[in-house]
Amino acid sequence: MTIQQCLMWAKPQLQPKHITCPSTEKDIGMFEATVLLRYVLQKDELWIATNSSFRLTTKQINTFKKIVHLRTKHKPIAYILGEKEFYGYLFSVNKSTLIPRPETETLIDSAIEIISQSHLSEPLVWDIGTGSGAIAITLAKKIPRAQILATDTSKRALQTAQKNATSHQIQSRITFLQQNLLQPKAYKWLLAHQSSDKQVIICANLPYLPESDKTKLAPDITEYEPKSALYSGKDGLALIFRLLGQIARHYNEWKYDSIYILLEFDPPQITQLYAQIKKLFPKATITFKQDLAKRDRICLIQLF
């Protein structure tokens, strides 16, 4: 089979059966076929486009057919390829880690903005629920002067994050800990690094989907991505509220110049989230930021 024949064979199999927005989804089958073929041949898009008569080997054809089959069974392309781009960087991903989303790039932008506006020389960043390490590593690369703590409850996720940190040659600047929210080791790290001339930014992209979403989401998500990284109780706010409660009990003990919290959340949760923050932190400054789709996605809390 040639490249052209492979693409024409795969395109109808990969095309979504139900098109909700024809203008944006009409070429999904061809797009995904091209991405998968690029992976098999280890060639860029231009090479694929200009070598349509190139004939694949039997091994390459079999590999291509195998991964197309996996995709028709809803396995995410990121898991098939073993990597996902986030904020211009590539990260290894697997079934132990959530696939990084473009929405989360707004959190990165917010953290960079906070730090760039500060006169302090050594910001601290705590990335909670680090998963693949995308947030921690991106901030380490974008802000060379930052000290970073990355925590997760999953040992396998942390191993993936450490692998990514090594790939990006940033491993010496990130401390990885297996912890659940504000457990002792994370708390001790914060105390050990506190200083009146430092600011700390707590970044939390925690599971925030309500349990009811299990019946609404695409099988690409529900059948493959780790449930522990997706759902958080009936309304999706259980873990976020637990973290905020822990911080509320302890933050007055921390001797920092300033404390910021950045939370990613589901847009319908905004009213409930705002009310809980005001209850726990009456004097805090609360700002909501929109993602690339113009939906409220990131909550910025400035404690002092």
Features:
single chain, 304 residues, alpha/beta, Helicase, Ruva Protein, domain 3, Rossmann fold, 2 domains, seven-stranded mixed sheet, two-stranded antiparallel ribbon, 13 helices, 9 strands, 42% helix, elongated
Ordered list of secondary-structure elements with their pairings:
Elements: H1 3-14, H2 22-25, H3 28-41, H4 45-50, H5 58-72, H6 77-81, E1 83-86, E2 89-92, H7 105-116, E3 124-128, H8 134-142, E4 147-152, H9 155-167, E5 174-178, H10 184-192, E6 199-204, H11 219-222, H12 238-250, E7 258-264, H13 270-280, E8 285-290, E9 296-302
Parallel strand pairs: 3-4, 3-6, 4-5, 6-7
Antiparallel strand pairs: 1-2, 7-9, 8-9
